[in-house]
Amino acid sequence: MNSRERILTALDHREPDRVPFDLGGTVVTGIQAKAYQRLRQYLGLPEREIKIIDVLQQLAQVDLDVMDHLGVDVHNVAPRSTASFQVNIQQTADERYLYFHDEYQIGWRMPKEGGMYYDMFDHPLAGDIAEEDVARYQLPDPLDPSRFTGLREAALKVINDEQRALIIGNMSAGIFELFTWSRGYQDAYADWAADPSLARKILQRFMDLQMSYWEKMFEVMQGIPIDVVQMADDLAGQNNLLISPRSYRQVLKPMHKEMFDFIHSRSNARIFFHSCGAVRAIIPDLIEIGVDILNPLQVSANGMNSKELKREFGKDLVFWGGGVDTQNAFDLRHTPAEVRQDVRRRLEDFMPGGGYVFNTVHNIQGNVPPENIMAMWETLQEYGRYSAA
Q1: Residue 103, domain member (yes or no)
Q2: Which of these, 49, 55, 25, lies nearest to 36 by C-alpha position?
């Protein structure tokens, strides 16, 4: 069974030879550059320049030699920034931070000393604005040909040469995330409660952007079997949703449904939906509107017990992630033995009957030692095989 066959079997809610493994298949299932560099050294692989594929999260591109060494079953093909936009990283006057503004004019900064990733500090739609300001807000061109350069060739290589499952990435974060990032959290939540018309106008602009992108992407990929489409919208925190289930159903759910219906109408790809935190209250809604795969399965969040999730929703959803509790069992505060114990528990909960792809709860952060990463991987190899294999 090759990697693509293994993934497709799991996506069909059947048991393959072993639990499929993802490292770097999306920008929410990857590895931070510092942790990746240490992992390469630990594996005895040749030293090479680490390519950053996500500046905000400082994610490393997982090279083919690592993918081959660890048996990674998926490969990501994601759009580029347009040729007209280049990230321009500068230094603040006090020399404490590095910073830049992205294609959406959102400002991001990272401490020069000890920084692991970038945080927001500037929001282009912050303050007292009107609907006219939303209309004037300049967004990147989703159809710029340079955004798609080389993607078709890369996808064919994944399918034909590597025989891994093909994941196509989105051009941006989710529409709710972009709404809060462009407006700033304080103003965004004020709009959500007191000026829903303005909030919907902003959401609609980001939705139109993504719909145009996906229409173009399916045109570029015509005839290529896309296995998974990666979408996201962080809707929850550690204990609860960031908005009420009622307001999700009234405002965001119809918009998500329209996007997901379009994707399903244009391809046979499964929709991979990433939403951190305590999302349990709206999992039935996500299933209803066409989500096929749920990620990251933050097992430490309220109501996100791995055994209960599998029992209640495992027939309708593929679970992708949740393989080790990154908050409580994975970083340098914890031993490889603790990692192994947690991985065994998650495998016991998620793997029966198929419908499971192994990955950590979100990206591997920069403070995770290679010994813990390999303890996770070795446990997956030992206990992640199905009895019929």
Answers
A1: no
A2: 49
For residue 90, what are the β-bridge partners?
A: 99
Q: What is the pTM of this model?
A: 0.97
- Beta-sheet strands, E only, within the chain: 52-54, 59-60, 74-77, 90-91, 97-101, 107-111, 119-122, 165-168, 228-232, 270-274, 293-295, 318-320, 356-357
Cα-flanking dihedrals φ and ψ of residue 180, to 5°? -70, -35
Q: Which of 329, 327, 321 is nearest to 359 (CA)?
A: 321
Answer whether residue 120 is part of any domain. no
Would you say residue 388 has pLDDT above 80? no
Give pLDDT, residue 53: 93
The parent domain of residue 260 ranges over 3-83+127-383
Q: What is the pLDDT of residues 56-79, one digit of tens each?
A: 999 999 999 999 999 999 999 999
Q: Helix, strand, coil shares of the chain as percentages rounded to 5?
A: 40, 15, 45
Q: What stretches of 290-386 show up as alpha helix (H) in DSSP?
A: 306-313, 336-350, 370-383
The total domain count for the chain is: 1
Q: pLDDT tens, 267-305?
A: 999 999 999 999 999 999 999 999 999 999 999 999 999
Nearest 5°: the CA angle 236, 240, 245 is 80
Residue 73 lies in a domain: yes
CATH of the domain at 67: 3.20.20.210
Token pair 């061109």 is found at 141
